[in-house]
User: Fold these one by one.
Assistant:
Number 1:
Amino acid sequence: MDIERLRDETPGVATCLNLNNAGTALMPRPVIEAQRAHLLLEAEIGGQAAAAERAGELEAVYLSLAKLLGTRPNTLALTMNATHAWQLAFYGIRFEPGDRILTSRAEYGANYVAFLQMQKRSGLVIDAIPDDESGASDPNALEDMIDERVKLIALTWVPTNGGLVNPAAAFGEIARRRDIPYLLDACQAVGQMPVNVEDLQCDFLTGAGRKWLRGPRGTGFLYVHPGMLEKFEPGMIDHTGARWRAPERYELQPTARRYESYERAVGLQLGLGAALNYALEIGLDAIRDRVRELASRLRGELAKLPGVRVRDAGRELCGIVTFDHEDIDAAAFRSGLGEVSIQVSVTTPDGALLDARARGLSDLVRVSPHYYNTQAELQILLDRLDQIVSESGAS
Ligand SMILES: Cc1ncc(COP(=O)(O)O)c(C=O)c1O
């Protein structure tokens, strides 16, 4: 990987040290240019005409996404963000009183509140799958929990609050064998590691553009296994996803595009296409290896800082690194880093409340290096953290 070239193509590295790639990564130049060009075209000839002119390029976005996920373009829908994609899938599933959802303990907050709302509406039961001794969601426990009332298995592959990589393919093997729909939140996985929906055996998979893929904000996507098209309708439809054929009848699009709506941010989606091609060109294996190497070194160095506790659980760890300090608040670290233009985020318990409660976590500092970050940048982070700790007078 030619890091120097990749950094040259990333204007943001000149102005900030972005270590919040799990939140929003810096866009490379081709992603910025694709959006800028479309915005200018819209200004010149109008939005509808601009979309018509770029129809071929827009179709190519589905091809690139299909390549990234190991599927066919007709299994894909473009959405506004990952949560939107997830909601379209989830709210399309019908639940009767007593039906069960089996989910991970570190399930993402947005997903869990939707479970709770659906529980209020339908009387379903939510059961969290216990973790194994490493802190990962346990496929053996999942298998033991399954009965005829289980209507959905929902897993967050990489939770928002740590480096954990859950065994998503093992879950998929069980879900497929037991014929239970499997909804996989891959938001923090896509773009930082290889993702193949056939290997994962998932029925729905959701992802975001702005995180590890380095695409624009306001982009997301949904993969739908063709078998699900016969079983469920999208949680919401419009007259594009479903054609209004007669006063009392609509007909859903034959493909996953039934999950899309008419209005779309074409410029952002073209930017997403550029981001997908950029990631594919570098290669997801190489990206995974570099990200994990940086993150692993960082964990080792953080653990040496007085009072710092690295909080990542699990056997397989990825590019998210979280820590807290015996005496210093996570917010104080974030603002102390922000003063010198180092971006990190603070992950709060409500991002994965069951996990936070079970492990006694409060706010954590989340550092998420991408392949375009360097060891030298990590050293700048560590030096600044060291300074924050010493200046606080904490032991
Ligand atoms: C695990 C996980 N799932 C879903 C999301 C939601 O993504 P979006 O903000 O694009 O809806 C996030 C965002 O941080 C996340 O960490």
Number 2:
Amino acid sequence: MSSMMKAAVFVEPGRIELVDKRIPEVGPNDALIRITTTTICGTDIHILKGEYPVAKGLTIGHEPVGVIEKLGSAVQGYKEGQRVIAGAICPNFNSYAAQDGAPSQDGSYLIPSGLCGCHGLKATAGWRFGNLIDGTQAEYVLVPDAEGNLAPIPDGLTDEQVLMCPDIMSTGFKGAENANIRIGDTVVIFAQGPIGLCATAGARLLGASTIITVDGNNHRLGISKKMGADLTLNFKNCDVVAEVMKITNGRGADSAIEALGTQATFESALRVLKPGGTLSSLGVYSSDLKIPLSAFAAGLGDHRINTALCPGGKERMRRLLNVVASGRVDLGVLVTHSYKLEDIVAAYDLFAHQRDGVLKIAIKP
Ligand SMILES: [Zn+2]
């Protein structure tokens, strides 16, 4: 094994490039994974554009599928050579944040560098790959706190079938779980990108019986029907709030899931809700939100607003892999393109410009 590898790093806004990097040393709690497939996330496009700041020279990417190359001396329960995934979010499950029920907000490892309070709770800091430590768009990635974060891939599943588990499926399903869906519910899901499509699949699995999806792209609305949408609304051709009120006989939806991160989608998600309904927000917002007074019933409507970052960890990953293995949903259909790691700059260009019906791109070292 050579000591060097290829990795896609952030150079400056507008530039992510492939460079040679040293393969990392394996500490006692780490695992070195040889990446067999990874992908590009919408969040990586925010990084590329300079809208989400990361350190120059950081390897990007947070969706690993691969093989254990080397295990740290303290890591129990896995074998070198085993096929695994790890969550996009990889907290230390001994942390205060994890024991407080919010592992994705674990900043415990930042305490020694003074970047986090003494209790280690720091918003989004459980997201380490391609954010705070080197990520997965490389030949190898080092998984920290590996015993809590690695999940073996069930026999017979391809890389493409499990590629959504680390992030997109975990996030989208969390959006459905946070919507407090009950059997028979009416749910409206705003935006049908990969995460919104997974939220749609999650809403169906949880028992929603009228699933209404909203997007401006008819191709994506077509795919959302395959994921479980009963009705699709193109916001360019209709007044979405009025349509939902018509469909529900003026009652309003039991819950709404926001999967984009804009004022317009957040506000519409609130306006379609029944009193007592739940707004589950997944989007990454880039400016202050305004809450409209009427839709919010002046604060007296018993509404709930839930936010989430992708859940990680081996138990979460085991459940998601089990959903795939049982055939309950097929998210492999979201993988529309495949590129070699050496061509990742072209893959970023395709993905950033949403050409050619792209949803997710398999990147293979
Ligand atoms: Zn992501």
Number 3:
Amino acid sequence: MKYVDEFRSQELARDLASTIAREADTGRHYAIMEFCGGHTHAIFRYGVQDLMPANVSFVHGPGCPVCVLPIPRLDNAIEIAERHKAILLTYGDMMRVPASKRRSLLKAKAEGADVRMVYSVADALKVARANPEKQVVFFAIGFETTTPPTAVALLTAEREGLSNFSVFCNHVLTPSAMQQILDVPGQSIAIDAFLGPSHVSSVIGSEPYERFARDFHKPVVIAGFEPLDVMYSALMAIRQLNEGRAEVENQYTRVVTREGNLKAQAMVAEVFELRDSFEWRGLGAVPYSALRLRERFRAFDAETRFALTPSNATDVKGCECPAILRGQKKPLDCKLFGTVCTPDNPVGSCMVSSEGACAAYWSYRRHQAGEALPAGEDEFGEEAAA
Ligand code: SF4
């Protein structure tokens, strides 16, 4: 298959691994943050970390939109379905993410709320057209990749006068999260370079990352999601670090350009504006890091249409999702991993989403004794045999 098989070649992977081992300076360590959950899954699914020399490590970043949504926003989504009796439409991953009091949209559905899974926001419009007597709300989440379809849906709803349709907007922005990781006292961690998002960058382009190279002296390599994309991008980052360069380089040239998709950007700018601040799981309140509907579209804004109860619910005690999303811990550092918390019984968002770091470890590493296991415990958090 063109554009897939050739990026999974074992022979090329072996060559790349040898090149990285040869070029990585044994006198230093390279900490490379892969921003996206898609990269994290590629790294574990294909054993990319195991192909790296010991002094090259991947640090998992916050690029999983389901994972970074804080519990109060989930509580509000449940409230829209239960208290306001709306039909709430959402992507599948969101259904099982734990809200406060161990509730979830799936449990709300089981208890009678009209919560439905959709594959796209276009399906949400169909539900609104078919149910004119009901309020229909699309629970919009995601980074810049999923924002343009929401903008199209809102423009369509406005054109059709679809007055029973609204959007609960939780679209967030990648560069603001990167800034937070690098810039906030007490939260910053030792990262030498970033593997930048590929799908997000197909929309916003590579230009927004240039300030991280310039102001923080961190190389950024826009990286595709196949294993050879990730390996070659790591090599590009290592070469920059060896040469003392900090630039934005684009490995994913088959999709990403410097300016991105200008038509999509214009549509997003027509419909959305920046929020002053937005709460992220793990990163806290991040300035100018999320979008809300512009005044022209307020009639379609679920936060305006429904009086939502403020919630200050916090993460479950013992769940390390916040530290994992900041790159400060790994899933095997969590004592609940594989014991209390599994994909069938998730405690935190990182175990639910297909892009979550805990889900990646569960799928591909739970049978290995991890380097980060607590002393005296096996990978399931149980006492190791002597
Ligand atoms: S294993 Fe579960 S409880 Fe632990 S950090 Fe991951 S999601 Fe949270």
